[in-house]
Design brief:
Elements: E1 4-6, H1 9-14, E2 22-28, E3 33-39, E4 42-44, E5 50-56, E6 71-76, H2 82-89, H3 98-102, E7 106-107, H4 128-139, E8 144-145, E9 150-162, E10 165-177, E11 196-201, E12 204-208, H5 222-232
Antiparallel strand pairs: 1-10, 2-3, 2-6, 4-5, 5-10, 6-9, 7-8, 9-10, 11-12
Length: 233
């Protein structure tokens, strides 16, 4: 599957600007375990790939984040995943592996098959090929969900406790985005593509769509604007 790979930190940040519903996928390669959970409490704190998210300490997934440096994947969900998102959120990986229990389609970041060898030799140079090899090596033990429209590879830098939750400070390493959902400047669904989801609460979602820029918005004449303001007051 051909995807847009994003490594520029400023562009990475734009993937989370809309506060999309994400499937957080994390793997413990040593233990041979993994889990997927839904996360919506997340936000950028700079335009260099940094973001923070909140996770209940009682979540099964929280046990995977005991140490700084934990690498994980945020899979951005679109409207065609609404039922899957609700199903993932309704069960715990502590009770059963979610992929088997919910018949989830998993893959490596970038939509590579789980059977595809990903552990490429990591070169020591700083050229483009060397950097790409390092990214593939990071992804070797990771998994995410195939229906997601973006796979964002991240690492957790530190965490603090607040009211039974971990506030985790993280940063994005690189990402893969479906061309149908990348404008070249941000995350937005193209024509005939399912819009990205955002969460309203109580199992309700909203669809995110792009609106015309200020140059294409017709401004009302000053007299009409004044009349409208007076009426509203």
């Amino acid at each position: 599957y051909m995807a847009v790979e994003i490594v520029d930190k400023a562009l990475l940040s734009r993937l989370l600007y809309p506060n999309p519903v994400c499937v957080l996928s994390v793997t413990d390669a040593a233990a041979g375990t993994y889990n997927h959970m839904i996360i919506t409490w997340l936000s950028c704190y700079d335009n260099k790939g940094g973001f923070m998210c909140s996770m209940n300490q009682k979540r099964h997934t929280a046990s995977f984040f005991a140490q700084p440096g934990t690498v994980f994947v945020l899979g951005v969900a679109a409207s065609n995943m609404a039922d899957t998102v609700l199903a993932i959120g309704a069960c715990s990986g502590r009770d059963a592996p979610k992929e088997a229990h919910l018949s989830l389609r998993a893959c490596r970041p970038g939509w590579h098959s789980l059977d595809t060898p990903m552990a490429l030799p990591v070169a020591q140079g700083k050229g483009a090929a060397d950097k790409a090899a390092k990214r593939r090596a990071v992804e070797a033990d990771l998994r995410t969900l195939e229906p997601c429209v973006a796979h964002i590879v991240c690492t957790m830098d530190e965490r603090i406790e607040r009211d039974g939750h971990w506030i985790m400070f993280c940063h994005m390493l690189h990402a893969h985005v479906r061309p149908s959902h990348w404008s070249g400047r941000g995350l937005v669904a193209g024509p005939d593509s399912p819009p990205v989801l955002t969460f309203l609460g109580s199992q309700q979602f909203a669809h995110m769509v792009s609106v015309p820029g200020p140059d294409s918005i017709i401004q009302a004449p000053a007299s009409e604007a004044t009349a409208s303001e007076e009426h509203e007051s």
